[in-house]
Amino acid sequence: MALDMGTNAIAYTPPIGVVRILLNKAEDLRNLEKVGKIDPYARVLVNGIPRGRTNARSQTLNPVWNEAIYVAVTSANQKLAIEVMDVETVKEDRSVGTFDVKLDSMFHKGTDDKYLEKVDNEPRSGRLVTKKGAKGSVTFYVSFYPALPVLSLEEVQEVDKLEKKANLEKKKGEKLSAEEQKHLKEEELDVQDIESMYSNKMKLDFNELLQYNTGVFSISILDGEVSQTGLYVQAFFDGNGEPTFVSPKIATRSITTGWTGDVMIKELEYSNATFRVTKDKSANKAEDCICEVVIPTVELIKNCYFKPSILTLSGGGSAKLMIQTSWFPIAVSKLPQADLITNSGDLTVTARSAENLISADTNGYSDPYLKFYLNDSKNTVFKTSHQKKTLNPVWEQSGSVVIHNRVNDYLRIKVMDWDAANADDVIGRAVVPLSKIDPENVTDLDIPVVSEEGGDGGVLHLSFQFSPRYTLSVSKTEKKVGDIAQKGLGTGLKVGSTVVGAGFGTIGKLGRTMFGGKKNHYVAQGVYNNAV
């Protein structure tokens, strides 16, 4: 396969901004299952094309997601819709219902003819509709953040080319013939037309462009090769467990038809991009893949902005992708805390002590210990040892838990009385909203305990330390009982541990292209890569 750098450019329309859809919850969904309940997730579509989705919730008709989906828009007239889907592990996912989102009130321009930021804090509700009628509703919030009006690389090159050409002609001065003067006049008019067309856009150099930490990252896959036929290329960004975009099915080992995709990057300084090749286009980040690479998004911009470069994926198989990238800054005053890297990470909980706990034993004391739970889970994430015969225990014990949504998650605490002969008793309960925890500093909290009768149950002295990082909030998909019944029990269950990512890629130069050429290209190599 011959490779011609720069001839496979794919048209991309710069966005006017991004729409943020916070998908809060759904209620009273239609149950499509004969056994059990559906596993619903919500997705956002632009002009009928899926652009982002939440994680699925298991076995419920009333899911709570609290996940934000950002989609780039190129026009105020684009059609945006929300659809709730049911996960199917054998067949295609099924629609539970859909509705259109009205955006008329979101797009406004200022006196300078530039779009304005619009944050709507009022909840909206949409009624889900299918061919069978309307059933169920979704509660959501909408915001719009405008793109900074800057010249794209193509626009900058167009302006520079015409200006340079016009300047060269001017240097000839009086030596110009009548025909040449006419041609020069036409060139000057072309320059004026282009300058007028782009007069409301700023011309930033590359370093100035990268000073903007929030923006739309677009990527074009121009060419490439994979290790076998019938595969897909997936792209994941930051903490997303579901692919941001997926390629068309690659029928041969060569990628001959390119494609493009974009994603809103909230914090470029922390952002990571993961590219994977897989047999299943809907596989999440925890599923097995053929090969992958993880690389800081900013490195992709630095190395693939001015000209296409080659990305190398490795693992059980291998792949090479020729890509080119763009960066369009977004003008945002302040993003919600729930959308930043400080919303996920590792939480260390230290149970220091307690005072005035409830007496549960005949001796007037208790043998207290604490059990911690995340949200509504029935599984403990941390448990202290018990302290004998005291209402004022001192533990000074720590445990850690992975947090995916600090702003909306909470810890439930059961204050227990240990009993050597009988079952342990609950003598009090407490709740800690994790939004109270400072993600950058140690947080000490005094948490009131409520007794089982609803009265004063004492106070807990707890300490919290949070270490932000992007976490994986999805797991391998297990086949549903109904799906197994349809396919036959012989198919078995899909189980196993999650896949560990390849880690950050490194940028290095190659003396030869992936197809034997002599041009230098940048290659992002995963930790499994062999020397090229």
Tell me about this structure.
It is a single chain. With 532 residues, the chain is mostly beta strands. The protein is elongated. The strands form 5 sheets. Strands 10, 11, 12, 13, 14, 15, 16, 17, 18, 27 and 28 form an 11-stranded mixed β-sheet that branches. Strands 1, 4, 7, 8 and 9 form a 5-stranded antiparallel β-sheet that branches. A 4-stranded antiparallel β-sheet has the order 3-2-5-6, with no helix packed on it. β17 and β18 (318-329) form a beta hairpin. The protein has 4 domains: 17-146, Immunoglobulin-like (Sandwich), CATH 2.60.40; 153-203; 215-331 and 502-525, Immunoglobulin-like (Sandwich), CATH 2.60.40.150; 345-468, C2 domain (Immunoglobulin-like). It has helices spanning 153-170, 178-197, 206-209, 297-304, 481-487, and strands spanning 17-27, 40-46, 49-53, 64-73, 80-86, 94-101, 118-119, 124-130, 133-146, 215-226, 232-237, 245-246, 254-255, 259-265, 272-278, 291-296, 309-315, 318-329, 345-355, 368-374, 380-383, 394-403, 410-417, 425-433, 443-450, 456-468, 506-510, 521-525. It starts with 16 loop residues before the first strand and ends in a 7-residue tail after the last strand. The longest helix has 20 residues, at 178-197. Mean pLDDT is 85; it is low at 1-8 and 484-532.
